[in-house]
Structure to design on (368 residues):
């Protein structure tokens, strides 16, 4: 039965508030770490899973500011304003004088001062070039932070006990702080999560668009190179999220292994074209090189005649197999692998000959 006839409704609300708010001090500290973990998790999803490096972060920054502002305001109110001004204020003292309720001294201020001092000292020690002193500084910072948290816990416990003593004296029933603790943790987490939703949606749309662009390039490549004597395969951009994608085109009727390996970037542009041909040991080097040239000329013409988006159409892959590039095969260095390179304005060429067991020629043209 409440015996609050001498109290105004405002004073009753103040007593209940002072019983609940000190209990929220530790949850606010815990909430900071939870929000930091959640923020890191959401950023990882945004940047790694959705590959959203170019997304606008304005709404996310707004959510972060609001989230930590809520936690900061609650912590400042509970840990600073109430003990320094609220319970030392005239209104609270008037409530105490009406029933002469005993209030214990709020402890923890000395411990808090020690904790702050240890943290500052540790920060200075960590700047030392001496590893031992720097290590002691890190330990001092940890100890100082622990002491500060312990002091805040002690102060909030004493404040809550004093407020509950007043509430018991007046017969005021105080609601459980559990729902307020839960609200303090869930509300900022909800705001932070919601702030990432526009970025997630933008990333998902951008990812789908990239997939469609790359898939269109793969279909154009297939259409340009497909014949009855070729087997073409590529990694489907809808099934994997990569920076580059590749297409393989194997000649099924060639006497030795012969295929193309084409690389497409995430914007759907062909950036690398590679030709592989196993050496036919029954033929001379000149004849093998002529076969490679013929293969390159034919497929190069097919690509340039199509609507496939190439990084450049000015390269001359077939005509470039001469001079130094040709000599890498015709007059190898004697090593197991011989190679030579050449370049133009925006194109690089490389011819590689491997004589390591399975002899083959590998010719590459790519964006400079």
């Amino acid at each position: 039965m409440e015996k609050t006839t001498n109290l105004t409704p405002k004073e009753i609300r103040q007593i209940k508030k002072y019983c609940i708010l000190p209990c929220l001090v530790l949850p606010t500290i815990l909430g900071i770490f939870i929000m930091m973990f959640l923020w890191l998790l959401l950023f990882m999803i945004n940047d790694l899973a959705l590959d959203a490096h170019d997304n606008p972060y304005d709404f996310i920054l707004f959510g972060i500011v609001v989230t930590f502002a809520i936690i900061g305001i609650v912590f400042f109110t509970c840990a600073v304003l109430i003990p320094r001004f609220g319970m030392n204020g005239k209104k609270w003292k008037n409530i105490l004088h009406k029933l002469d309720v005993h209030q214990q001294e709020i402890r923890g201020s000395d411990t808090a001062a020690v904790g702050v001092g240890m943290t500052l000292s540790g920060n200075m020690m960590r700047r030392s070039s001496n590893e031992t002193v720097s290590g002691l500084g890190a330990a001092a910072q940890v100890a100082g932070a622990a002491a500060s948290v312990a002091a805040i816990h002690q102060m909030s416990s004493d404040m809550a006990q004093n407020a509950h003593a007043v509430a018991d004296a007046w017969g005021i029933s105080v609601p459980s702080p559990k729902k307020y603790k839960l609200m303090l943790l869930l509300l900022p987490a909800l705001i932070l999560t919601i702030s990432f939703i526009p970025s997630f949606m933008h990333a998902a749309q951008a990812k789908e668009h990239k997939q469609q662009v790359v898939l269109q390039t793969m279909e154009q490549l297939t259409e340009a190179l497909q014949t009855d004597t070729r087997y073409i395969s590529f990694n489907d951009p809808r099934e994997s999220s990569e920076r580059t994608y590749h297409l393989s085109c194997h000649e099924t009727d060639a006497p030795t292994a012969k295929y193309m390996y084409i690389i497409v970037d995430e914007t759907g542009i062909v950036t690398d074209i590679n030709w592989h041909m196993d050496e036919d040991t029954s033929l001379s080097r000149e004849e093998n090189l002529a076969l490679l040239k013929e293969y390159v000329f034919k497929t190069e013409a097919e690509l340039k005649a199509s609507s496939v988006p190439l990084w450049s159409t000015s390269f001359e892959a077939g005509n470039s197999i001469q001079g130094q590039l040709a000599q890498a095969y015709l007059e190898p260095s004697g090593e197991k692998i011989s190679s030579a390179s050449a370049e133009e304005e925006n194109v690089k060429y490389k011819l590689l000959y491997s004589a390591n067991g399975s002899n083959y020629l590998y010719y590459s043209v790519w964006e400079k």
